[in-house]
Specification:
Order of helices and strands: HHEHHEEHHEEHHEEEEHHHHHEH
Shape: globular
Structural class: mainly alpha
Distance between the termini: 44 Å
Strand order of the largest sheet: 4-5-8-9
Oligomer: single chain
Strand content: 5-15%
Number of helices: 14
Largest sheet: 4 strands, antiparallel
Number of strands: 10
């Protein structure tokens, strides 16, 4: 079974059915006072150094990463695409740090060159979940993975002005576009398949909303109305067919008519991010109002009890960065407050001070568990969160 499917199944089971109550011996309460941008930058640098020391395989191995450390016998030789993308996203965020950012420019360029090793051309091109030949055996094309790769390409285009990154992002739109399922016989026609296979049986919120965010951001840069039409169609389906309450979206809709009601922070975030990008591109205040409504309502939900703590760290990285994108056009100090509270708690409670690596439950969230290997995915998530806090006030 593919790693992406295993990962998502594990996360669903863990978050839906387990309560994490163990407290690590070294855990400390969150700081009662604000952390300065300089401290966040130092924490981002420390987490990045740990990623490179323990999970990076080196330029001689094509700039690839391990899936986790210590490596297990069942692990692939190199990481899957999703962790590789998150390492790239983390490096882009490091590249934007005040003062020290230029030091990461070459690293960022290498990350994106490495991501291209996962791309396979052909009749149905796309970034594969695992490295195609000659470096690996390949894997399925997961449409959510392709969308987030393109979003990072856009981030790097905005950072560097290099149009090669914009071109790569545009090339992903036809890939995710073929995921659209408008079969009128299905409940709530529309939505995007999770992965490219006849065996796919679900239309996924994350694929559709992330693709909407991609198309909306491309419209901002190109003013090509084709992107706007796609963004509005894809965003509209999630808003009308998957919304359980403001800011809360069901995970997927099965071809058999069933709905998976599981809630994830990154589904909340991607819809906030898509609406924010649609507002920036069109000036239509209705999108800004939707983004604000989803942000405020989702934050009220996710900050209750241990909900944020129990979510996978990488999902929270998506969510918080989308909240910050909204904050840039409609400021609300509650967004940064929630982000910094979570980040400070994770730094105190989930970090191994000896290695600088972050350990969570097998789901990728929850309490510190030293017996669970540190992963490129979650280590990259914490870098993204710290670096984002370092450049916002």
């Amino acid at each position: 079974m593919l790693r992406s499917l295993l990962r998502r199944t594990t996360v669903t089971a863990a978050c839906a059915g387990l309560l994490w109550t163990a407290v690590p011996a070294h855990a400390q309460p969150a700081r009662p006072h604000p952390v300065s941008p300089g401290v966040w930058a130092d924490r981002a640098a420390g987490a990045y150094d740990a990623l490179q020391a323990h999970l990076y395989e080196g330029a001689e191995l094509h700039g690839l990463y391990l899936e986790r450390t210590p490596r297990r016998t069942t692990d692939p030789e190199h990481s899957y695409l999703w962790p590789m993308r998150e390492a790239a996203a983390a490096t882009v965020d490091m590249e934007q740090l005040p003062r020290t950012g230029p030091a990461y420019r070459q690293d960022a360029a290498e990350r994106f060159a490495t991501i291209e090793l996962y791309f396979a051309p052909g009749d149905r091109p796309g970034y594969h979940s695992y490295l195609p030949a000659p470096l690996g055996s390949g894997g399925d094309v997961y449409y959510d993975d392709n969308a987030v790769v393109a979003l990072s390409e856009l981030d790097q285009y905005e950072r560097t002005g290099d149009r090669a990154y914009l071109t790569r992002a545009e090339q992903v739109v036809p890939i995710v576009g073929r995921a659209w399922d408008a079969d009128p016989a299905k409940a709530c026609p529309g939505g995007m398949d999770w992965f490219d296979s006849p065996n796919n049986t679900v239309r996924a919120t994350n694929v559709t909303s992330l693709s909407a965010q991609l198309a909306a951001r491309l419209y901002e840069h190109t003013h090509d109305r084709t992107y706007l039409e796609k963004a509005e169609q894809w965003y509209g389906w999630v808003h009308s067919c998957m919304r359980q309450a403001p800011g809360l979206y069901a995970n997927d809709r099965g071809d058999d008519g069933s709905t998976n009601p599981t809630l994830w922070t990154y589904n909340s975030g991607s819809m906030i991010g898509a609406a924010t990008a649609l507002y920036r591109g069109t000036g239509d205040a209705s999108y800004l109002n939707k983004a604000v409504e989803d942000a405020r309502a989702s934050l009220a939900y996710w900050t209750q009890g241990s909900r944020l703590h129990d979510q996978p760290a990488i999902f929270n990285a998506f969510y918080f960065k989308d909240l910050l994108a909204l904050d840039a056009v409609r400021p609300d100090p509650a967004y940064r407050k929630a982000m910094s509270t979570y980040a400070d708690s994770a730094y105190a409670g989930n970090r191994d001070a000896t290695t600088g690596l972050f350990h969570f439950q097998p789901s990728g969230g929850g309490d510190y568990d030293p017996g669970v290997p540190a992963e490129t995915l979650e280590q990259s998530a914490m870098i993204q969160i710290f670096a984002s806090l370092a450049r916002t006030r």
